[in-house]
């Protein structure tokens, strides 16, 4: 369950960083923040689907 919380926290923070880098028009930052959002967002969704929230035993 703690893993889902960490993944979700990183996903939410990467959403904020994506918005900030789009406002600043920082192309390298946009690339990294979109990659982080994609990877950790995918991990969050798949961890919730596989393990459930709360964790199913």
Automatic annotation (TrEMBL):
It comes from the Bacteria. InterPro entries: DUF2759 (IPR024490). Pfam families: DUF2759. Keywords: Membrane, Transmembrane, Transmembrane helix. The chain crosses the membrane at residues 27-49. This is DUF2759 domain-containing protein. It comes from Sutcliffiella cohnii.
């Amino acid at each position: 369950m703690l893993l889902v919380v960490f993944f979700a926290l990183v996903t939410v923070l990467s959403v904020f960083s994506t918005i900030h880098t789009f406002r600043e028009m920082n192309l390298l930052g946009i690339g990294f923040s979109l990659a982080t959002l994609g990877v950790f967002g995918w991990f969050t969704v798949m961890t919730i689907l596989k393990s459930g929230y709360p964790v199913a035993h």
